[in-house]
Model the fold of this input.
Amino acid sequence: MSGEQQTVTVDLGERSYQILIGEGLLHETGKLAQQAGISSKSACLVVSDSHVAAAGHLKKVTDSLRNSGYRVAEAVIPAGEESKTLAVAEQVFDQAFDAGLDRKSAIFALGGGVVGDLAGFVAATYMRGIAFVQLPTTVLAHDSSVGGKVAVNHPKGKNVIGAFHQPKQVVYDISALRTLPLREIRSGVAEVIKHGIIWDRSFFEWIETSIDPIIELDSRILANMLARSCAVKAAVVSKDEKEDNLRAILNFGHTLGHAIESLARYGTYTHGEAISIGMVFAAELSCELGKTDRASAERIRNLLQRAGLPTEMPANLDPAALLQSMKQDKKATGGKLTFVLMSEIGRVEIINDIDETVVLNLLRRLGRSS
Ligand SMILES: NC(=O)c1ccc[n+]([C@@H]2O[C@H](COP(=O)([O-])OP(=O)(O)OC[C@H]3O[C@@H](n4cnc5c(N)ncnc54)[C@H](O)[C@@H]3O)[C@@H](O)[C@H]2O)c1
Ligand SMILES: O=C(O)C(=O)C[C@@H](O)[C@H](O)[C@H](O)COP(=O)(O)O
Ligand SMILES: [Zn+2]
Done:
């Protein structure tokens, strides 16, 4: 394994923080928390999920925190998207109270995007907001742990109940990724590919040449890949923290992707799988509206397929229902559809008020050919 460590900064003035990427960093959680100014006078809570705890990662974190003098409680939620609810958040609030967390306390989110989003939401709202640290353990969480979007789902939509609340630090121990199932590795690579498409053509081209070692988590390239992908996210968030406009480009593929996730029932498709299909759709829609060329759309589909991700519309989902769900997307205003469309690989734009007949016809056409 390579010992190379990477640091990416999210530049947000007094709320700036670092993303530390390297091997074995979970053993350093306590020391790094001290460096980030997390107080050890108050109790802290490590939130994780059942798979991450069973893989042994939780113990590394609690041991390290205790060795650095922190008083530590644990909250382990059931693994999976179905846990990203207000009901589970309420259980974590109870555990925070029981452990005596106060306004100087911190929450450590150890897991993938589900744990990060949920624990971050609890941190954003408990006593009107306390500190939190992201300890991502999935490939996908290079995206979810950065940028401060924290949320739980509502039966009517993904991430609808949430806030912007930046972590104090992101500690990304890439050795924890070795216990991830292959399907989850592929899922995370979808967001890596997204970062190439929306911002960095040379990164997309590098992924094209490296996709096989990426899926194998080749240690010679893993830290670099995650640092490059986090750097895209950090650059966008630093320019538009609360999604006034530019940040919406990070939603490429998510207009349809989120609709698929909620209509197919959370957990049927992973987040990365759903946005893979959503990115193919966004690229096709970009072609249909004359914004990009067919070759670029095909290139995206090919790379996603080579990453082992689904690219076909789910045959069992009704296009009219998908359209309805997309109209409730957070980017939509006044019931008008908003999509992130592509002009070329590396460049996208946010288009409001897209003709819904065009979208519906394309959903039907792609659904028939799948
Ligand atoms: N806040 C954001 O900016 C943002 C960005 C992207 C995605 N998200 C959200 O992130 C969520 C998806 O995140 P995810 O794909 O990480 O899903 P996840 O958190 O459900 O993790 C995927 C699976 O891997 C398991 N797992 C996690 N780490 C493991 C490890 N090291 N070893 C073994 N198993 C492990 C989990 O228990 C789970 O079963 C979605 O809810 C999505 O909406 C948020
Ligand atoms: O950070 C962002 O902004 C993103 O859009 C990143 C997405 O990958 C992520 O899935 C995010 O949770 C979606 O945000 P939402 O506002 O559409 O719920
Ligand atoms: Zn996403």
